[in-house]
Every structure is written in structure tokens, then in C-alpha cells.
């Protein structure tokens, strides 16, 4: 185990594997991709990663089918795991025509989707494709009882470990940790507790067994030092960062702007009013709204009193210009910190002191952000710690910018969280490449020094990411505070129902953002961030060894 803390552990690892693992060790698809790469350079590591990929979602027939096709792999898995995987692969029968189902999914017609899945399972009992679709739907709509109903059918004995694993997860997400624990322990007898450490830690924490959760995570990291996500979570549990509240070391300006979202703004201001504001100043900009936004602000003005300053613009100047207007307000510039808050979020009572804990832990960050959850389905994560990556086939050096392509400098943010529900996988604090603009905190002077949000990216989309890129180039990386979650009323993915105009604006702004930062700058940020992530991880592991939580 000691090799984990030496320079050679990461230095000797195949560079693409190291880079991907430092982003995290959660999610079946991510672990599968990393494992497939690792098989050539380190077969033992590759097998461990591919086993972890399967156990991450053992009823996912897509992963099972792919793993079953990897030559010589299954004999290296425990016999019962291989039997379960083979049975899942054999029982996963994807229909040839899914056009009607995809139309239902795109329309998010909950009742029709449920009924269609149930009707398909009635016609094809035991078809794990429809079982998986039912579980995905249950998670997307936070209808965990429906997921448990799907799992109550009759299944072959070989896949009982996978069924019990899914039941444990859905019972936990449904708020019944006591029911989840025995199911998880039964499943872990086959899959190994290390491969289920996140869920086991989440369940035991919910049951008030903090020391057990620490023991489970430490066992996983001791046994398999590549488990970066588990190590980060373990560190924060061990030193109390997961539950730490610290007042900000200075005055704070809360900056909001809104355009024609009166109902959402009303709810946002209500949650803000219910939070611990500690004498902050609130700056509320009406960005030329024509609905009831002005009346909402008028309604809340007496509640906040002199704490809230109102700004009314005659026209919508766009998101970037609204942000710049707010940061240039003289009273804002007098504050030590400034936090932008979207007009469609719900904050927790202690949100400011949670950000304060991040400032205390990482005082030199360029910006501090948090975990963003879907308001309608809070188990769905919209944003966590984001890292810059290049798409497959476009890695490494190349043309600085190719304006003839729809992606003139192809890079994007990591999306490990999109294949997972919020089961504790991102409950940690660390540096990253970008944090979402829904709720992000700046030292006011750094915000001003970094320049305004780019008007090239008006009216909205990618202006917050581009701002983060400029901070990264100065060596001032963002920090993600995963122990603070906010609820966001704007849906993501299929749920967003973006119009053609909105989609076109997003594509256009992505093009412009990529053209603003040549490939050499993106490669520099990626390399600098990789070193930062590794350094941060090693410091945390050394702390855990010094405290006797991990073997040295």
C-alpha cells in the first residue's frame, strides 16, 4: 500500500489511465473506458477496473455484453460474478425498434413511460433491457418505489446479487437505509465490499455509523489505491470537512439577475430569505423583464430591507452583461467576496458558511462552486467538479484553432456524474477545471482582476466556463465544494426541452468559446490541473496515513 504515496505510483502509471483516474473512480462507463485502456499497460489494474465497472451497475446489459466480449476476461473474475454477468448479458435483449419509446422519453410523459415499460415487461418477462429502462426512469423522476416494483419480479438465481445490489441502492435512495443494508451485505458477498464502498458508506452514514463508513472506505482505498473518489470522500469524513461550517472571512455581496422568470425568482428569494445571511448585501438586477418579475422584487424588498439593492434595466442585456453590470457596482466592489446566484435555485440555510469552509480549506482558489441537483428530481446531479477533456480522436497536439470545423478546438467538460444518481460519489472538496455558474463565489478583487464575463458569449451559455478558463491560465483553479448542494429548477438532458433557437445559441457560443482559447492553452490547463489533482490527492493520503486511517 505504501507505494500509493510515493511519486512512482502515479508516475509509473500509463499517462491516459492516470489522467482519467484522477478525474474520479465512479461510474460504470468511465471505469469501463479506463479499464479497457489499462489492460495493455497494467493487466491487473485493468481487470480490477473492469470488475468495478460491472459492479457499479450490474444490471446494465450494455456493460455486461461488452465485458463478456473481452477475450480472456471472465475467467479472471470471481466465479459467481462471472456467472451473474453472463446471465445479465444473456437476459438483456434490446428491441430492434425503439422509436415510440424514445418519443415518449423525449416528451417526459411520466405516466405513459411507466405504463409502456410495464407493458413491455408483461410481454417479455425478465427482459433485463426493460428492467434497466424502468430503473433509469425511476431515477430520473425520483420515483424509487417504482424502481423497487420493477425489481420485485421473478429473476433467475444467477442474477440475484445484481438484483439485491439494485434493491439496496433504491431502498437507500428512497430513504430506507435499514432495509438497504442487509441487501447490500448479501450482494457484497459476491461482488466484494470494496466494489460497493460508496453505497455502503452512504448507507452506514445514514444509519449514524460514521466510524463504519470510514472503515469501509479505508478498506477499499487500502486494497486498491486507484480509488480516487473513495479516497477523497474518506479524507473529508476523517477530518470533518463533510460537515464543516465556517463564516466567510469578510463581507459578501449576493448577485442575482433575472429575465421573465417571476415564479422561479420568487421561490429563489424565498429560500435566500430563509438562509443564514449574516448581514450580506443583496444586489437584484431585473434584466428588462416584461412579466411579473418587477412585482416579485417589490414584494421581497420589505423582507430584505436595506440589505437588498434593486437595479432595473429597460432591456435584456444578456447574462454576461448582467454579471458585468453587477460586478461593477461600487457597493459590490467594496465587499470582500461576491457570489453569483441563479434566479431559479433553492439554497440550504447554511449555504454561505459551507462556502466559507471551502474558502478556509482552499483560500487561493479562483472561484468556489458546489454540487447542483435537479429540483424536480434531487437525486439527479446536474453539475459537480468538472475537468477539461479532449474527445476521443482529438487528444493531444494539433491545429491551434480550425475555424472550418463545427468544433474549432474540440474540448469539453467531464461528465462522470451524468450516468449516476447522487449516492455520495461526489461528496468531497477539491480543485477542478470548472464549477457551474448557478452558484459560484469569488474574492471580489480576483473577479475584477480576471476581467468581465465575455460579451462574445451573449446572451448566455459558456460565459461562466470561459471565465474559469482564464482563471486557470493564471494558475487560480476553481474549487468544488461537494458538501454543499443547491437545487436548480432548470432541467437538464432530455428534460430541458430546449428550443431550436436555444440549441443554436449554445452551439454558436461553444464554437466562439473554443475559438477564444487555442489548443495550446487548453493543453496547458489540462496538464496543470492534472498536476494539481495529483498533488491534492497525495497530500490527503499522507494525512490519512499520519492519522492511522490508512496503512503506510
Q: What can you see in these coordinates?
A:
The chain is of the alpha/beta class and 552 residues long. It is built from 24 helices and twelve strands. The strands form three sheets. A five-stranded mixed sheet has the order 3-2-1-4-11, sandwiched between helices. Strands 5, 6, 7, 10 and 12 form a five-stranded mixed sheet that branches. A two-stranded antiparallel sheet has the order 8-9. Helix 16 (262-273) links the parallel strand 1 and strand 2. Helix 3 (28-41) packs antiparallel against helix 4. The longest helix is centred in the last third of the chain and has 28 residues, at 519-546. The radius of gyration is 24 Å and the shape is globular.
Brief description of this entry?
The protein has 552 residues and is of the alpha/beta class.
How far apart the termini lie comes to 7 Å
Gross morphology is globular
Strand content: 5-15%
Strand order of the main beta sheet, please?
3-2-1-4-11
Please give the number of β-strands: 12
**Averaging pLDDT over every residue, what do you get?**
93
Number of helices: 24
Largest sheet, if any?
5 strands, mixed
Low-confidence stretches: 492-497
Radius of gyration: 24 Å
The helix fraction, in percent, is 40-55%
The computed structural class is: alpha/beta
